[in-house]
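Hi P.,

Sorry for the delay on this. The queue was packed all week, but I finally got your sequence through. Input first:
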Amino acid sequence: MSKPVSEKSNPGLESSARRNNHADWTRFFWFGLPSTAIDGADTPALRLMPPSPDYRPAPRFLELGPGFADEVVPAVFPEHVLRFRNQRWAERVGLASLSDAEWLAHFARFEPLPQNLERPLALRYHGHQFNSYNPELGDGRGFLFAQLEDERGRLLDLGTKGSGKTPYSRSADGRLTLKGGVREVLASEMLEALGVYSSKSFSLIETGESLFRGDEPSPTRSSVLVRLSHSHVRIGTFQRFFYLGENQHSQQLLDYCIRHFYPELESEAERASAFLRAVTRRSARLCGQWLAAGFVHGVLNSDNMTVTGESFDYGPYRFLPHYDPSFVAAYFDSAGLYAFGNQPRAVFRNLERLAEALTELADESALGAALREFTSELSRARSEALLARLGVERMGDDADQRLVSLLLDFLAATRMPYDRLFFDWFGGAASSERALHG
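Then the structure:
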């Protein structure tokens, strides 16, 4: 396997740009990039940008003005080793032609992308963590680095994890372990393959530091992750303004979310309740997709749910070894609050908190009506996702539900490995004996 791209401290870009070398490579790169000679040239990264006409800068978060985020300075890392580059998604946002050195400049040293955010922004939010409200949250080891538009004009965020301390780091070091970064990549790739609406791991770079953690062997290696998602506006973002009584900021944030994430709601008379209904539907669909994938998020706090209904932030997650509603992913969740079977309840509880945060902007009865759509949407989404995994055509809600119930009863009774069911189903008769014996 070839040597990963590596860069010590802060040398300049390579002397001869290799823009087109990635064009025919695989859709993403993993622990095996070709060696790149990086010299001390002082050519600024920005001179080589934009990389293609498909790069569409869109720093829309600045529309919100002050009160929503804090400018921060990225950490300076002693070493940059490119471990993962999501070329397929880079192509979709116009960044595929970046040379390896340019990639490191933007996603390890965080030199700004052109016509984008001049400085990274640590976003402000609060949230309920294991049912306790925490007003001291915010981006503690990440920031919003840039915003882009895809080929359909949809807004996308490039956000980080492990990029250094912020005003919200508290006593933490603002870093991410390499193990944690690898787990993020594996989760997002697997969930995307299973049809879950997930953020994408865009870049993972090892950063040459030794970190100490109480829950894994230490010292351990460090990394910085960049994720691509449709939004980093969380339920906890609205909670913060409600807690502080800043109704004007709540209205600004609502208008921003509708304008960029739910433009179909622009003409609604009751915009806040229509927004909650849309977020409820998307969140229910996400939860149904998790359940079909056998995915246990592990930490479904309200600050870990976005208003776009997109799965993100993969810490102590697990995939089911076998069907078990009581299965817990996080070792610190001793009560099973976020167990596999409790995820619908956890998601709905967070939606209730979003409804509470919108009470100054909408009639409470309208907000309640919006929340009542959760159960039916969840049931429908779970059936659709499970039948899609089986390759079975839908026959209507009632028939779909009967099949799903039989399937789950079979999995519970046999304790068959969860994913093996789908492998055996597609394997046909050759797999029947193993399937019957669980």
